[in-house]
Amino acid sequence: MSPFLKSISQFVGRPLRGVATSLAVLQLVAGATIAAHAQQRSLPVVRDAEIETLLRDYAKPIFAAAGLQNAGVDIVLVNDPSFNAFVAGRRMFINTGALLTAETPSEIIGVIAHEAGHLAGGHQERLRDQLARAQTMAVVATLLGLGATVGGALANNGGIAQSGAGIAMGGAEIARRSLLGYQRTEELAADRSALEYLRKTNQSAEGMLKTFSRFASALALSGARVDPYQVSHPMPRERIANLEVVARESPYFDSKDPATLQARHDLMRAKIAAYTEGPSATARLFRYDPVGLPARYADVVNTHLRGSPTNALSKVDALLKDYPKNPYFHEMRGEILMRANKPSEAAKAYSTALSLSPGKQELIQIQRGKALIATGDDAAIRQAVKEIREALRRDGDNPDAYFHLAQAYGRLGDVAEAELATAEAHFYSASYKEARIFAARAQQKFKTGAPGWVRAQDIINMKPPRK
């Protein structure tokens, strides 16, 4: 499995802005009283050490400026081609489509700054309150309307009955518009906070403006006529008008992204394009520099996915000859060697990647553990258990790691730990029924009161999130 599509998980509880909010609005129109934050959704989450490290580097100064440096905010990659980002709890979700579309780091940094504004401003919590108020308004209007309708029917007065229906529909519409208006206000507040964070960190807001200009162009080209009072976000041109003057007043507006950061950004786009869209996409992306480093990196990934391991290995070795200190080229080499059925050599490549990696080492460490398991050597498998467990101490909700751990314990004949690790893998994949089944099986093999028995009991007793 590739390092980019290394782990696909499920996150439950879509955030209050975006799709879930649209669902709540539709429910309000019908007079429903279901809270939007209770909507359950699965997201295709991808894990990649290179991309996650880059995004953390983008976010670190922004989070500090927003006072979120100690808030434990996680950045999560969503495998989705649309340009979107959102927050839920203490997680910030960014679509791969946004990363692929953004030509410069400042565009993504602006997105992170905007979402940080939502987190720092407590917008999710306040939106829940607004949803509750809007739902109350809709319910009251519906009850009043129903009362008038019933009264009109009993009095055999069609006019009163008809007006009752109008009251019900009108009340729901007022509630819906009130909620949408509140959301637009919060979006503008997050935009202003983003400008503040960018100024504090000596960064340009030009990337933010470029993003909104792209949205405006796409809307214009679509030919769609949008009522600005019927959407949850301000219109792109309105956002530009509200931000451009203040953005250009910043002494850092003309600042450019550091060349090293731009280079890492280009490599990220190359990887995403190769994994999600293939050679034709990477050829278009780098048509003006078909022999540059990003294009070469994309070619390695494309060859690895769609060509022979021998050719892919030759190409990645050529990259490493020119850039021997890049940890992610070594990680890719390990992935290619795994496909070539050379796990011992792959483990060595991952070890080199680990020694050079500046961050998110746990993901590479899990890959190394996977390679050690594939050798079939008991000593190597025991080392794999040690390394995967160490990685899980820093990244404890990684289902992919638990599946590898289960495989290692199974090879070593430790059935109880294998079944508990399988239960953990299902638990963090939101497959709660399977998690309880394997936890129950594991518990029978542990001594009562042992740590494994207690953890299995926790999984058995766990109540899934309400739908």
UniProtKB/TrEMBL annotation:
Keywords attached to this Swiss-Prot or TrEMBL record, sorted alphabetically, are: Hydrolase, Metal-binding, Metalloprotease, Protease, TPR repeat, Zinc
EC number(s): the record gives 3.4.24.-
**Would I find Metal-binding among this entry's keywords?**
yes
A single Gene Ontology MF term assigned here is:
metallopeptidase activity
Output the superkingdom of the source species: Bacteria
Cite the Peptidase M48 domain residue spans from the record: 49-244
The reply on keyword Transcription regulation is: no
What PROSITE patterns does this protein map onto?
TPR
Name where the TPR repeats lie: 327-360
Matching entries from InterPro entries are given as: Mito/Outer_Membr_Metalloprot, Peptidase_M48, TPR-like_helical_dom_sf, TPR_rpt
Q: Which cofactor does it need?
A: Zn(2+)
PANTHER family, per the entry = METALLOENDOPEPTIDASE OMA1, METALLOENDOPEPTIDASE OMA1, MITOCHONDRIAL
Q: What is this protein called?
A: M48 family metalloprotease
